[in-house]
Amino acid sequence: MAFTYSAALRAVAALRVADQLAAGPRPVAEVAAAVGVDAGALARILRLLAGRGIFAEEADGRFGLAPAGQALRSDAAVPARSGVLMFTDAMFWTTSYELASTLRRDGATFADVFGMPLGEYFDRHADKEALFYDGMERVSDAENPLIAASYEFPASGTVADVGGRYGGLLAQVLRANPGLRGVLLDKPEEVAKHRLDTPELAGRWEVVGGDFFTSVPPADVLVLKRILHNLDDGDCVRLLRNCRAALHPGGTVLVVDAIVPADPAPHQSTAMDFMMLAAMTGKERTEAEIAPLLSAAGLRLTRLVPTHSVMSIVEAVPH
Ligand SMILES: C[S@@+](CC[C@H](N)C(=O)[O-])C[C@H]1O[C@@H](n2cnc3c(N)ncnc32)[C@H](O)[C@@H]1O
Prior knowledge:
Keywords: Methyltransferase, S-adenosyl-L-methionine, Transferase. GO terms for molecular function: O-methyltransferase activity; protein dimerization activity. Helices cover 46% and strands 18% of the residues. It is of the alpha/beta class and 319 residues long. The strands form 2 sheets. Strands 5-4-3-6-7-9-8 form a 7-stranded mixed beta sheet, with helices on both faces. The chain has a two-stranded antiparallel ribbon with strand order 1-2. Strand 4, helix 12 (188-191) and strand 5 (205-209) form a beta-alpha-beta unit. S-adenosylmethionine binds at residues 140, 163-165, 186-187, 190, 211-213, 225-227, 230.
């Protein structure tokens, strides 16, 4: 019955319950009145989520936010609310429910359930497209500093984020490594909305609107974050070959993805992979699945660097 946790989390995120507790614990009746729901019912949901470390019940019966629940506040440093609403939206939830048909038909459940592929669904439902990209952006905001801090970048040279969307990771890397210059490559319509234009990073970056299958900007470090997981093996090799060709001598390619560990212990990468299977195309790969793709592109996997997030960094250099 693990789905009850996701559903309860979705309900309190949708109702913005955490914002009601921002100043500290309150009686449930007060919170329920403020968000317009029944107090008895809300108390049952808070009790379930207290068991998951989201809320905490005081000795006097009031409920407050447990440390993990603080992230649901709208004013949290890295708000989790839009990520929760995105991952529990019908586009993932309903397709997950229909997983057996995905397995029988080898994919295409999204189109079966929603009557059109995901891309077309986004074209027709701007609100869902915004929910998805806003949620992913908040998830990236949470993991980007952890990724930037986990890898020892060179002291000088150029780092290019290939498919780096608005430059969130690149900004973190440049902040942490003042001797580096950055290049952001993404589709023209995405880079037009970049977030690199801050006084702190002035003069250290360049933005390129283009197609990474056509060319990749030359650099000492090329980063591909959440890119290979969207691509089939053939397209991964095509892109990695472009990266190999664009690398400065002595350069490095960093594939940053939710790498599935060989160890069978529970790991969030398998949940990410489940969603790719149920609702999208693409997959999360193991190190052993990525190594041959790098090799086919003239690159050699040198090591896997963990981060304090679901993401790992696969480092590769030319053969
Ligand atoms: C899943 S998002 C990852 C964004 C970012 N790296 C992150 O981790 O938050 C994939 C990105 O690749 C970009 N992209 C997809 N195909 C591309 C192409 N052919 N050329 C350039 N960028 C592309 C998309 O616009 C999108 O920003």
